[in-house]
Amino acid sequence: MGYPAGPRPLSSFDGKVRELLAKMTLEEKIGQMTQAEQDALKDVNDIQKYFLGSLLSGGNSDPKAGNSLAAWTDMVDGYQEHALKTRLRIPLLYGADAVHGHNNVLGAVLFPHNIGLGCTRNPKLVESAARVTSEEVRATGVNWAFAPCVTVPRDERWGRTYEGFGEA
Description:
single chain; globular; TIM Barrel
């Protein structure tokens, strides 16, 4: 399987963005700037009602049907279906806390946290872990992984030092 050379330049989207913004109501713009935790979503129709632009699955925010690949895919696809029923048919930006693999999904590869990967001093290994994570995240329909965390922890009292590659 080959990988694309790289993304299109952001400037190639400027015209489409301007066109969409010109069509949007204030309520739609507010909705597009809103990211809700999927577990807090009480009614899936709220995606359409409030024009939600983003949902996320943080730690322990799994599909109600379980942590299988099928449950994740069905959940994200179901949310996307509702987003695409809005007037402008803008798909959701769906984020997941996949900071050491897509650890929410049964059978996914789990990697050491970034602090452990940083200790290897092996950038190729880190890149490989990131690639596997991105493929597994994408397989569930999620299009945004909250990883890697780009931080240089300098105070070990910070509760997320393990998400940095070193320096505490």
